[in-house]
Design brief:
This protein is an alpha+beta fold. Helix content is 18%, strand content 44%.
Length: 131
């Protein structure tokens, strides 16, 4: 089984969490924390900043490492490095996703998350979000 190594951004602003809906592929219509693949010899934080710039046309600051999700999908193993982040420049603009929403912690359970992201959701629910 192949392994895909990604970084994911839990972007917060004014007590809300940014969520993005996949607009393509097998998981189209499901929600996730944005991010993407980590390239060879790339630090996860650098990959995350690059991916957010590509997918959402904004700059982010990486504030805190939340944890690593290891999840087996039917066709691949996902290793996802999750980070708490905030927008450092620009405005989040969806370029690859079909939709986005800002949600409060108490609304996280109402989102149709991708299975691996559900693990990160549990971590986020336990955070005190001060931004």
């Amino acid at each position: 089984m192949k392994t895909i190594h990604v970084a994911a951004a839990v972007i917060v602003d004014q007590g809300r969490i940014f969520t993005a809906c996949r607009g393509y592929g097998e998981f189209k219509g499901r929600w996730e924390f944005p991010g993407g693949k980590i390239e060879k010899d790339e630090k996860p934080e650098d990959a995350l900043q690059r991916e957010i710039k590509e997918e959402l046309a904004a700059d982010i600051a990486v504030d805190q490492f939340l944890g690593t999700v290891d999840y087996d999908y039917p066709d691949f193993h996902l290793t996802m490095e999750c980070y708490l982040c905030h927008v450092a420049g620009g405005t989040l603009t969806i370029l690859e996703h079909s939709a986005f929403r800002w949600v409060r912690k108490e609304e996280l359970e109402k989102v149709d998350w991708l299975p691996a992201d559900r693990i990160a959701v549990e971590w986020v629910k336990g955070l005190k979000i001060s931004r």
